[in-house]
C-alpha cells in the first residue's frame, strides 16, 4: 500500500475512533418529537371556550414510533425537559453514526485500491 493511501486509511480510522469516543458522552436517548399544546377543557362554561388565549396548559406530548405505530405520551414539564434533551442526544448520535458510515466507506474504497 502506498504511503499516501496508508496515511488516508490511518486518518479515517482515527476519525472513527474520535467519533466512537464521543458516543460515551450521552446518557438518555429518545427518538420522536415533543409537542407543547394549550388545550380547552371539558367545562362548557369555562373561559377557555371563548378565548383561545385562556386555554389550559401547557401540555407536553411526546410522539414516537413503536413497532411501526405512532404512540403518544403526556409528560410533566420536568419529564418534557428530560425527553427534549434525550431527543437532542438521539439526533446527535445519528449524526455520529452517519459520519462513521462515511469514514467506513472511505476505508473500503482505499483498501479496494491497494496493490500489495
Ligand atoms: Zn377550560
Describe the structure.
The protein has 116 residues and is α+β, with helices and mostly antiparallel strands. The chain has one domain. The protein is 48% helix and 22% strand. The protein contains two helices and three strands. The chain has helices spanning 3-22, 77-112; strands spanning 33-39, 56-66, 69-75. β2 and β3 (69-75) form a beta hairpin. α1 runs antiparallel to α2 (77-112). The radius of gyration is 24 Å and the shape is rod-shaped. The termini are close together. The mean pLDDT is 94. Zinc ion is lined by residues 40-41, 43, 46, 48, 56.
Topology:
Blueprint: H1 3-22, E1 33-39, E2 56-66, E3 69-75, H2 77-112
Helix pairs in contact: 1-2
The chain binds zinc ion (ZN).
Residues 40-41, 43, 46, 48, 56 line the site of zinc ion (ZN).
Please supply descriptive tags for the structure shown above.
116 residues, rod-shaped, binds zinc ion
Count of separate structural domains = 1
Q: Proportion of β residues?
A: 15-25%
Mean pLDDT: 94
Beta strands, count: 3
Largest pleated sheet:
3 strands, antiparallel
What radius of gyration results from the CA coordinates? 24 Å
Q: Cofactors and ligands present?
A: zinc ion
